[in-house]
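One thing: mind reviewing this one?
=====
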Amino acid sequence: MTTVAVRDGVMAADTLLIRSEVRCSIGKIFRRDYGLVGGAGSRSDILRLLEWYDGDRRGKPDFVGYGDDRPEVDLLILERDGGLVVISQYLVITRLREPFFAIGSGAAAALGAMHAGCDARRAVEIAARVDVNTQEPVEWATLDELPARRRRRAG
C-alpha cells in the first residue's frame, strides 16, 4: 500500500509503486487549489477517488482494487487552512480534529513516530523500516510552496 503522513503543514509520502512485481518510484502527493492530497492504495483507485472528490461527487467511482471485490483506498487531505480530511473507499468524508495523521499500511508506525515527536518526513522514513509496503525515498510538500513541483528528499 503506502504511507502518507501530515504534521505541522507538511505532507510526506513514500514513493513505492509495485507494478507487475517490479518496484518503481512515483509521486503520491497531489497539489490542488484546496490543499495537498496524499493517496494510499491502488494507483488507479487513488486517481478515481480523487476525480470523484474533485468532481460533482455523484455516483460511485469504478474502483479496480487489488484483485478482490473490496478496494482499499484512502485520501488524506491537508487543507489550505491546516485542516485534515480523510476520504475512504466508502466515500465517507471525515474531518479530523487531530494535529497530525497518517494513512496506509505504515500508518500505525508513522503515527507512533509522530506521537514520539517526529515530523511527517521522519515518520514516513521510520514506517519504511518496518512496513514492507513503504519505501524510501520520501517525498514531501508544504502548503506555502509556490511551485507545483514536489520536493524529494535525496536518498
The two ends are 20 Å apart (CA to CA).
